[in-house]
Amino acid sequence: MTDKNIVILGGGQAAANAIKAIRSLDQSCRVTLVSEESSLPYERPPLSKKCIRGEKTLGSCVFFDQDFYKEHKIELQLGRKVESVDFHNRKLLLDQHSSVAFDRLLITTGSKNRVLAVDGLAPEQIHYLRTMAESQAIVDQLQTRNRVLVIGGGFIGLELAASLRTLGKWVTVIEAGSQLMGRAIPPEIAGIVQERHEQAGVAIQLNTTVSRVTTNGATYDVEMSGGHSITCDLIIAGIGIEPNLDAFEEGPIRIDNGIVTDECGRTSIDGVYAAGDVASFYHPLYDTHMRLESWKHAQNHGINAGKNLTGESAAYNEVPWMWSDQYDYVLQLSGLARGYESCVKRGDSPEEGILYFYLSSDRIIGACGVSIGPKIGRDIRIAGMLARAGQEVDPDVLADTNQKLQPLLPQ
Ligand SMILES: Cc1cc2nc3c(=O)[nH]c(=O)nc-3n(C[C@H](O)[C@H](O)[C@H](O)COP(=O)(O)OP(=O)(O)OC[C@H]3O[C@@H](n4cnc5c(N)ncnc54)[C@H](O)[C@@H]3O)c2cc1C
């Protein structure tokens, strides 16, 4: 128990989980949440999936209702953007010249959308998807718009494409790179996912960018880099995200592809922590700094930082894991799918599950696969446990779907 004044800057996934962890250990410290969004903290994965398809309301995406915050004595300052942080005097500087003082601070400002400039289009003619408000704006447009151009073949663009196609919309996805989800997913899996989209009727154009757009009433004539054109009536860009560092400048706090932390979430400033998408954290297992943009990471990193804000010094050593739902396909990635020496395939079809293991010195460093439904979930989890244990594995066992992976785990 402490009488500390803990402030959390940013109200998303990491923040909500940090609050829960703080209150499970310390019921007496003061806790204040300051967030730019006016909603209670909510989870974002449904925004590109069920919420777009009308299968889930935005309101049901919140982690905890108002009573939770009241009961746990969490002071909420919502709809308040922090302009900058005065680390010397230990206070957040907000709009309207007000401030919030802290003893300990957790920075969970997440990510922000990369913004696209297109010749012939005003910024407000391009939609993005990160927040509830942006999800609602797309849903509103879909009442009257049927031909959608999605710019960017990453996770968000493809999840949107799948949801829109399921709603019966005509969808074109253009991607500047030579494969879908190029930054994160190996080509073998990207190819399988591309086929699924094409079967569903989505037009996918790789190595393509927008050259210019002409607006014709409610429609857009879009000229592509290859010289061909399409006509659409809604344009959505999903061209990646970057850490949201709007309130910070390099100097007082160390920044390098996000707010730099150690394995306990501590930044370069005493009593100041960072977690979730915004944190470039030291990962003891991989002996390097990394920044992850995933639901599970934001949850567990937030919990870890919450504990440490109350006085613990727990190192965060989770094997990364993320998923993406597109139609009936569930894609999963555990660990790292880069810097490997060899690759082993398990399974031959999405029906039974296709999983690629990435190995270095006969040890798994990552696994990535796709299945109809979450079928590969168990093997992906075991791959994560093997990676964490640094266990040598027999590639023949990995490749053989008649052999279970569980016995490979250290006893
Ligand atoms: C549409 C969508 C779908 C996704 N689907 C998946 C998925 O299927 N699987 C998966 O693993 N991951 C998915 N993710 C990623 C996952 O949701 C994020 O990794 C997670 O939300 C990150 O949590 P966070 O708390 O770090 O940041 P966020 O959830 O982004 O929260 C940051 C909060 O800080 C606030 N903030 C920022 N700057 C300031 C400031 N200066 N002042 C005040 N407040 C500020 C923001 O407004 C925001 O509310 C998805 C993300 C999106 C957007």
Structural account:
With 411 residues, the protein is α/β, with parallel strands linked by helices. The chain has three domains: 5-111 and 242-309, FAD/NAD(P)-binding domain (3-Layer(bba) Sandwich), CATH 3.50.50.60; 115-239, FAD/NAD(P)-binding domain; 328-408, FAD/NAD-linked reductase, C-terminal dimerisation domain (Enolase-like, domain 1, 2-Layer Sandwich). The protein contains eight helices and 25 strands. The protein has helices spanning 13-25, 66-71, 132-142, 155-166, 187-200, 295-309, 377-389, 395-399; strands at 5-9, 30-35, 74-78, 82-86, 91-94, 99-101, 104-107, 111-113, 147-151, 170-174, 203-205, 210-216, 219-224, 229-232, 234-237, 241-243, 259-261, 272-274, 279-283, 288-290, 321-326, 329-335, 342-346, 354-360, 363-372. It is globular. The structure holds flavin-adenine dinucleotide.
